Amino acid sequence: MNRKKVTVEEVRPDLDIDEHIQMQERGWNYQRVGLYCILIFVVTAAAGLYGNGLASKKTLSEGGTSIEFEQFFRHEAKMQLKISTNSDKKVSLSFPAEYLSHFEIEAIVPDPAESFFEGGDVRYIFPGDDSTTITFYLVPQDVGNVKGAVKVDEHVYTINHLIFP
Amino acid sequence: MYLFVYVIFRILGKRSLAEITTFDFVLLLIISETTTDALMGEDYSLTACFIMVCTLVGVDYLLSILKEKSPWFQVASDGAPLVIVDNGKPLVKRMEKSKVDEQDVMEAARLTQGLRHMTEILYAVLERDGSISIIPKQKKEHK
Q1: Closest approach of chain A CAs to the CA of B28, in angstroms?
Q2: Least enclosed by CB within 10 Å: which of A96, A123, A165, B118?
């Protein structure tokens, strides 16, 4: 019979007991693997692989505009999408309506002067200033890959998120 | 969520719940609070509460049936008893693997049998629930 090697002491106690020693060995191995998995999970979480961290934050910059967003985030948790621009004219932002349908917009700071639908996009107009930072507080409502874009005036920036359950 | 908590406590091993310190107790309360938020979200309705309670109790009941039907599953989920002291001699490798030390064995020996020395123990068994049962030597001699 093919018996795996037992790494602990073999005893024959005078007891009505079934130790299932092979399964115990397997259990100890799984426990070790499980502990490593917990460690990896904690380290990757600290690095921001599930949002709110270095690995998650991404900034796209072009000209005087920069967009800061989370590449990885969690379902039903509040995340920020920051758009900074130094335009002193009105700032126009548009998102595909399909993209916004994956989120609940909890707040927009500052409030847009106007917002309306335009050809499948949702467009927001903000009064310009020397340096404007617009923050969208978004709560993901879906899990998985969410692809989208934001159009700042005439420039289109692609933003993707991976939303964990 | 049930499966996640189940796996976590299985990874931590038998002794994790058997010897609860004050801090472990606080930790358990924090874990329960955290999982409640993830399970219920912001749904405070009675219906959601009924669904959650019925689901948890139902899954637990199903698992207990599965354990009854399949001895393999019973051992895989709850573990099996393990002899850790044989005729007064601590089985060090077994104790190391089970995260139990000689002090734990002697504590159980003092509490349950009033024994003073390891040599007075015939067998010590780490049970499935993480407790340690002690069979003293003299009991066998009386037979």
Answers
A1: 17
A2: A165
B38 touches chain A (CB under 8 A): no
Where are chain B's structural domains? 2-78, 82-142
Instruction: Tell me the per-residue pLDDT of B63-106, one tens digit each, with 9 for 90 and over.
Output: 999 999 998 888 888 889 999 999 999 999 999 998 899 999 99
Which residue of A lies nearest to B97 if distances are taken between CA atoms? A28
Contact between B83 and A27 using a beta-carbon 8 Å cutoff: no
Convert the pLDDT of each residue in A64-117 to its tens digit.
889 999 999 999 999 999 999 887 788 899 999 999 999 999 999 989 999 999
- Nearest-CB residue to B86 (from A13, A23, A35): A13
DSSP secondary structure string, A39-106? Answer: HHHHHHHHHTTTSSSTTTEEEEEETTEEEEEESEEETT--EEEEEEE--SS-EEEEEEHHHHTTEEEE
Q: Which pLDDT tens digit goes with each residue over A26-50?
A: 888 998 999 999 999 999 999 999 9
State whether CATH 2.60.40.680 applies to domain A57-164: yes
**In angstroms, what separates the C-alpha of A20 from chain B's closest C-alpha?**
6
pLDDT digit string, tens, across residues B113-138: 999 999 999 999 999 888 999 999 86
A79, A75, A52, A72: which is closest to A142 by C-alpha? A75
Chain B positions in Cβ-Cβ contact with residue A19 (cut-off 8 Å): 80-83
Domain boundaries, chain A: 18-47, 57-164
From 2.40.37.20, 1.10.1610.10, 3.30.70.360, 3.30.240.20, which CATH number describes the B82-142 domain?
3.30.240.20
Is B116:B128 a contact under the CB 8 Å cutoff? no
Residue type, A57: K
Output the six-digit token pair for A101: 């349908």
